[in-house]
Amino acid sequence: MHALLVEDDDRMSLALGTALAQRGHTVRRVGRAMDALRYVREAQFVLLDLGLPDLDGLELLRRLRTVCDAPLIVVTARCEERDIVQGLRAGADDYVVKPFRMNELMARIDTVRRRTGAPSSHAHGEGPPVRAGDVEIDIAGRAVRVDGTDVRLTRREFDVLAFLAARPDQVHSREEILDRIWGDAFLAASRSLDVHVAGIRAKTGRADLVRTVRGFGYQLGSPRPGSER
Q1: For a Cys staple, 137 with which of 30, 113, 165, 207, CB 3.0–4.6 Å?
Q2: Where is the Response regulatory domain (predicted)?
């Protein structure tokens, strides 16, 4: 696999590049946002530091997501909850805070790569679109429409919604969703799932599209027009 490593620290770049190469990946390292935008289309996955000299990393993440759908993991020293939430909402598939254990990061890379685009396999990617009120979820086509209007979700947001839509009558535990979508049930201690559910609700304007089962998990809801409040 070909990795794009966006990191301006030489020592960190050397350590990450060596670890990736030892696992059979080829690596292009860049230290500036403009170079990341130049080379991202050739990448099969991306590691992104947020502390870049020419552009804020979160803004770069948003720009990358407009041109590239490759798996992307933020690797940064920014550890505030606000930064983590913003990174996930902007389209990161995972968020790792420095300092980290190299083996853990490599495992997270493997998990993200393995699970990226997996909902179509969870739901077999077949059959007609699922309807929930005025929301249409096309699992095979990876598209969402609200009252006939296309809504753009991040890949992870769509993954969560498609997983729920594939089994609309079932309530799914947080651990099950995290295991099937992220490949790690222990992420239940993080806010990743909550952030993505909030993103689905906000972008579709249907607050009850994803129903919370308090203390357990989530289920696909049946939203009514005007339920955004």
Answers
A1: 165
A2: 2-113
